[in-house]
Transcriptional regulator (Enterococcus rivorum), 525 residues
Amino acid sequence: MGVKVKDLLQLPSLREAQVYAGAENLERSVTSLSFLEVSDMLFFSKNIQMNQKEYYAGELLISSFYSIKDDVDKQCQAIQCLYDLGEIGIILYYVGIVLPKLSPKVVQLAEKLGFMIICMPKNDPSLRYNEVIYEVMNAIITKQSANDSFVNEILEKVSLLPEHLRSVEMTIKMLADRVKTNIILTTSRFEIINQVMWPRNSTLGVQQIIESLQIDKKGKDNNFLIEDLSVYQKEIQQKDNGRMYLFVITEKKELPIFELDQVTEVIQVALNLWGKKHGEVSEYALVKAIINDESEKMYRLAKILSVNVSSVQLLWLVHINDLSKEKEIRAELIDQLSKFYRTCVVQMIDHCFVVLLGNYMHKHSELDITKEFMETTTHYSSIKDIIFCPRMRNTSDVREMYQLVNDVEKLFPVIYKERKIFSAAEIKSLKKAMMLATMGEQKIAEHLVILEPLMEDKEAIKTLCSFLLDSNGSFSKCSELLYVHKNTVKYRIKKISELLGYDVTCFSETYDVYMATMIYRVLNH
C-alpha cells in the first residue's frame, strides 16, 4: 500500500506546501517518489521515455523546472506529458527563485487534467530536496512494511490504466517495483514470455540461470539457492494458455513466502483478466505484444514466426464499423499489400486492423497505395478510416502511433469531415490542436487571432475549414462538399487569403491558419 497525498502533506517537510491544482487527488496513494531532472519533454520523449517504456502510476515528482523556467508553453507540455505517463503530480521547488512565478496557464491545465501541483514555500532558498525525499520515502516504506498485502493494490493500479496499457507485462512491471526483484514468465518449455528486471538496467542472465536449473517439469514448485541468488519457481495453469512457469529471481536476499504467494496470485489474476491467449504463438499474439510493450514476448514470437520486426517501416491502422466483414476486409488487405511488401502482418485489435508493413518491393507512393486500396475495395462503406504512418523506425514508434490514434480517433469526424484517409502528420497536428485547446483563453486567442478577420463571416470560416481540413487544399473536392461551383470556391479562397494576409493555397504560409482552423473546430464541435 502507498501513503495518501493528504497524509504526506502533514509531514514536517511538506507542512508549509500549498496545493495549487489537482486537490481531488488528496486521497490518491503515493507509492514512489522521483526527481524530474529533464523537464524539457521534447528531449525527454526522444531520448529517455522511448527507451524506458514505463507508466508511472502512483508516483510523485520533485522538480524546479530549471531547464524550462522561462518557457510557459514547455511547462504546459511537461504537465501534459507527465499526466499522460500516469504521474500523480509534481512538488515544485524554488518558485520565485528558479521559476520566476507559477503561470496561471500551467495551473489551469493541471486543474483540468486533475494533475497535482504542490508548491513549496516561495522565495525560500533554504529548502532542501533531501528532507522531502527522506520523509516521503520513509513514510512509503513504513506503510508497505506494515501492510503486507499488495494484491488488490497492484490489480487496482493496473485496472485504472488506459485500456491499451492493461496487460500482463505492465502488471509484472508494477510487481517487480513493489517487491524489488526480477520476475520472469515462461512457456512450459521455459521460453521467456515476459521478463522484467529490477533494477531495470540489470544485466543478470536470467535465461542462462533458468536453463542451468534442474527443474521438475511435472508440476512441482521449487526454491533454489545459487550463491547470492534466490530462485523461486512456480507452475501456473491458465485456461487459455495451458501450463506456464513463474520465476522470481532475487539477489542478495530471499523474499518471504507470503510475498511470493501474492506475486503468484497477482499474475494468475492478470492472466485471467488481460492475458487471453498470452502464451499463444500467432501473428495476433505478436501484434498484441508490440502494442502492449511486451518486448521479450515480441522477440520470442517474431523468431518463431519468422517475422523480422526490425524491417517494419510502415503502419496502417484501419478502423471498421461492421465486424461481420472482418474476414473479407482482412483478405483484401493482405491480397493488395502483399504485392508491394514482403513483410505484411494484418491483425484485428479492438475494431481496428493493425497492419505492419516492411521490405518494400516497388517504388509506388505509399499514399497512392492507400488511395488505390480505398478506391478498389468492395467494402468501402464498412471501413471508417485508414491512418497510414510511414517511416516507422522501430516497434516503439508503432506502439506510440497506435496509442496516439486511440487518443484522438473520436475527433476524426469532427475535425476532418467526409474523409477516410489520414496521415501520421495530420494525427500529430490534431493531438497538438487538442492540447492547445486546453491551455486557457489567452493561449487559444493567440492561435485564433489569425482568423479574426473572418469571425463574423460564417460562410468564409466554413469554406476555409472545408478547403484546408476536408479537401486537402483541393478546389474540386471542396466544391463537391460545399455543393457550389469550383470557381465559387476559388473566388472565396482568394478573398479569404486577402483578408487574412496569408495565401492559404501556399504551403509555406498555411500551417498557422491550418492549426487555427483545427482549434476552431475542436472548440465548436
